[in-house]
């Protein structure tokens, strides 16, 4: 697509990475500043009219609201309203699959700070997207070309 790509893991503060390396799951207090920083990146790219893909484990509905609306989404429990800084238009892609497939992929990752032991905590935290969120669900049991085609098709359909 020629879009700019960001991996949210690259933006975790050192304290978050150390916590995960030690097998300690992150909590909301750990994640919110990270998500606000990611929102700022998405806002900057949107302002410059740069289409962007962000790979991010936005596990909870509240996390996705922060990505859309920034810090104000935390207090109001809603994305920012139209105005000077309107809420970002984001299509969330929920990559869904059985824990054993995801565990197999995690085991193959080298040099990453999140150990396999934290996978269950991710599943425990997960709030799959639901209406009225703007999302698609893509099965991880499909081949990579099928996954990419489904995502690209959803993007192009608007």
From TrEMBL:
GO terms for cellular component: cytoplasm. Keywords: ATP-binding, Kinase, Nucleotide-binding, Transferase. GO terms for biological process: carbohydrate metabolic process. GO terms for molecular function: ATP binding; gluconokinase activity. Its EC number is 2.7.1.12. Pathway: Carbohydrate acid metabolism; D-gluconate degradation. It catalyses: D-gluconate + ATP = 6-phospho-D-gluconate + ADP + H(+). Belongs to the gluconokinase GntK/GntV family. This is Gluconokinase. It comes from Ploceus nigricollis. The lineage of its organism: Eukaryota, Metazoa, Chordata, Craniata, Vertebrata. The gene is Idnk.
